[in-house]
Design a protein that fits this description.
Elements: H1 11-27, H2 37-42, H3 45-72, H4 77-104, H5 114-119, H6 136-182, H7 192-195, H8 197-212, H9 216-223, H10 229-238, H11 244-268, H12 273-278, H13 281-288, H14 290-300, H15 314-346
Helix pairs in contact: 1-3, 1-13, 1-14, 3-6, 3-8, 3-11, 4-15, 6-8, 6-11, 8-11, 10-11, 14-15
Length: 361
């Protein structure tokens, strides 16, 4: 959930909706919360919110990489990884440090290999992880995407990389179904190969958006009232969770494509009523805070716990307080440090003997 220098309209508002879905999902079933877990679990709101994050991430990162490629005919991989590191690592590893300290004090219990998998961003391949770090599976998927996708663009080039992403979207339903029958209990929807098509759809949208603007049929559909069936289809597909074969074969893809269409619609119609809502200050602030909120919601929104700190509304207040501390004391200082270091490390004038950034031509 990285930031951007030149913000794309509506994306922060969409992030706000995404984190709200996750929070609502995890609030369901906690003591004194009005909505039962049956309601939030029926539509799998948490997974739907994470899926929106994934599509946004693929769209945003690919958009940034393609802009750099178009401007410089190259991608500075070291700078990319440097920026991601100082954006994501400090708040994440602070959370882990506090959880490990709490375990050492006997305040909570982590699973045996939680430390290994969370520290290495591989918890999406560790289904036995404890609730306190349960949400790190999605952060692992994101980190694996950051490591892989720029290299794919580097080696394959723009056109072939986007075709590869589109091909992965097409074969993913079959791959999930094969894994479902071959390995019962396989963590489908958590491991990278079974969920990365959500990110790939966002990548394809970023690369194809210019072409889509020239397609009259698509633009007419985007402008028509029939488009409102798209978000409805996304919600209904999410409700297929209790029918695993339909869910992993049809539901995933319907949600991915539907979310991508909604993102394109929202970015295109950023001046209408919906756009005004998505770009209003409270929603934008919530979207900016979404990473910290996502990091800290899991320890407090625990329906299996009877502790005071996990009871509504105190649990939600504590999530907000922890997220604010993380954002203002960790995230923002890290971003300022990144800007200073980036100016020193990557903006010096190149001498004739210097090697250019990795070329994709």
């Amino acid at each position: 959930m990285p930031e951007q220098t030149h913000r794309i309209p509506s994306l922060d508002g969409l992030r706000a909706i995404s984190i709200s879905l996750v929070l609502l999902s995890h609030l369901g079933g906690t003591r004194h919360f009005l909505i039962s877990a049956r309601v939030t679990d029926f539509f799998e709101l948490g997974h739907l919110g994470v899926r929106v994050f994934f599509v946004i991430s693929g769209f945003l990162i690919t958009n940034l990489l393609l802009q750099e490629l178009a401007k410089k005919n190259s991608i500075h991989l070291l700078k990319f990884y440097f920026r991601r590191t100082l954006r994501i690592f400090p708040p994440y590893y602070l959370l882990l440090a506090i959880l490990f300290l709490a375990q050492a004090c006997g305040w909570l219990a982590l699973a045996p290999r939680d430390a290994l998998h969370t520290l290495t961003y591989t918890s999406n391949y560790y289904p036995e992880r404890s609730w306190y770090v349960g949400h790190t599976w999605s952060l692992s998927v994101e980190e694996q995407f950051y490591l892989l996708w720029p290299a794919v663009l580097l080696l394959a080039g723009r056109r072939r990389a986007l075709w590869a992403a589109g091909g992965f979207v097409l074969v993913s339903p079959v791959l999930r179904l094969i894994l479902y029958y071959a390995f019962r209990g396989y963590a489908i929807g958590h491991t990278f190969e079974t969920v990365a098509d959500s990110i790939a759809v966002g990548c394809v949208l970023a690369g194809a958006r210019g072409w889509l603007k020239q397609q009259r049929v698509y633009q007419r559909f985007l402008q028509s009232r029939w488009f409102y069936l798209v978000p409805l289809a996304v919600v209904l597909a999410s409700a297929l969770y209790d029918r695993p074969r339909l869910y992993i074969f049809f539901g995933f893809t319907i949600m991915n494509i539907g979310i991508a269409l909604c993102i394109d619609w929202c970015v295109t119609h950023d001046t209408g009523r919906v756009g005004a809502l998505l770009n209003c200050r409270p929603l934008v602030f919530l979207g900016v805070m979404s990473y910290s909120l996502y990091l800290w919601q899991q320890p407090f929104l625990n329906k299996s716990s009877a502790a005071l700190v996990t009871q509504f509304p105190l649990n939600l207040i504590l999530v907000g307080a922890a997220a604010l501390v993380s954002y203002y004391l960790i995230e923002r200082p890290s971003l300022r440090l990144r800007q200073r270091l980036e100016a020193r490390l990557f903006t010096r004038r190149m001498r004739p003997t210097d090697q250019p950034a990795v070329s994709l031509s």
